[in-house]
Amino acid sequence: MPLNWNVYMDCFGCTLEDWLKKEYPHRENDALLRELSSQGVTGVTKNALRKLAQRKGIKKECCLDSKLLLPDKPYEGEFNWREVISAAQTLKRARQALDYSEETPLPIIIETHVPIVVTFSADWHVGSEATDYKAWVEDVDYILKTDNLFLAVIGDEYDNFRSFSSVAAVIQQLIPPDLQLQVIEDITREFVEHNKLLFTTWSNHVDSFDERVLGQAAIASLRRTQGVPHLGGLGVVRLVLRKDAKDSGQLYTIAATHKPVYGSHLRAAHGAMKLYQQYFPADICVTAHNHQPAHEEYIHYDVARRMYGDTGFGGTSWLISCSSYKSEESNSWAARKYGRGNLKRESAVLWPDEHRIEVFDSISAAVDRAQSLV
Questions:
Q1: Which of 22, 289, 325, 332 measures 20 to 30 Å from 345, CA to CA?
Q2: Under the phi-then-psi rule, with left for phi > 0, alpha for psi from -120 to 50, and beta for the rest, what region is 155?
Q3: Which of these three, 64, 84, 110, is where a domain ends?
């Protein structure tokens, strides 16, 4: 077996000449050196090496096998946990800069001398074969052309079934999800250009479905650039109606969420009531998701309204549950859960010169009421 003397002598901590003098004093060193300089070794036995290794306390493998010599530091630099946390904080700030959602956006101001109408619309489900497209297009055109009529969208604008536990829900879409998104982007642009859209909200079909499949909502970039407040989950919008910049105006608070934590098949506005009780007692508490329209007048904290009327707290509040345009449901699992739907258009008339709200289940009825006061 060929021996690598440079490696072995490093293990023993001595030079080859010193080792030869000690182990083989009867032989000439020069002759041995010449002999050991060849590829093989003839005069020195492995047994002699083993004995030397035992005296040195070195395992025999160090002498008989190849030896791997690693550097003292396998990598440059040292780990510092503070650097890791600092990098995380930098990335966190970058993500926060891209976050388009708000909980309490800045007040929305409308300058007007006459009452206005806000229609609360949700669950369009554009793309579904069960959506009543004729009614939806008619309402869109009516909102765009009618003065002093504004829109708040409470989620689920499109169906967005990219994957689902029920394959029927996916294949029964008339419009594929990528085109559904383009439709919503285009109509949102129209609403913004006509100064109609007050705010939008998070919802399970539009946001959660994409977050589950894609990691983020595909509509996120649109919401960041459209300049319209977007409520992420729960939120409160402050709407101020005033005659001009010198007028303090009337403050109306609107608490909204698409999918309430609580619901009841016996009371459609139950989720809005829980929003009022557990989140914020706003002038209008509005939810959606269950496709069942309803509105209730609720009077509570009346003294608080009289004492602190300018804070938008207490007195008469309205609890609203939005309808759905997905009113021609044929999918069995959804029909069992939501029924075939009852299409209403919950709309509120708000006054600029007094704190007063009236709610109707028809857009045209609310508009007629507002125009009758001019």
A1: 332
A2: left
A3: 64
Q: Would you say residue 173 lies in a domain?
A: yes
Minimal CA–CA distance to 63: which of 74, 76, 75, 51?
51
- Number of structural domains (the chain) is 2
Q: Give the residue numbers spanning the domain of 224.
A: 102-372
In this structure, are 169 and 318 located in the same domain? yes
> Nearest-CA neighbor of 296 among 274, 311, 325?
274
Residue 109 placed within a domain: yes
Is 78 domain-assigned? no
In Å, how far are 79, 94, 95, 248 from 82, measured between CA atoms? 9, 19, 20, 50
- Mean pLDDT by runs of 10 across the 374 residues of the chain is 54 61 57 48 55 56 59 70 92 84 88 97 93 95 97 93 80 88 93 95 88 80 80 92 90 94 87 93 94 91 75 83 84 59 90 94 96 89
Same domain, 54 and 131: no
According to DSSP, residue 68 is labeled -
Choose among 349, 324, 348: nearest CA to 337: 324
pLDDT at 369: 96
For residue 218, the tally of other CB atoms under 10 A from its CB is: 22
Is residue 189 a part of any domain in this protein?
A: yes
* Residue 165: per-residue pLDDT: 75
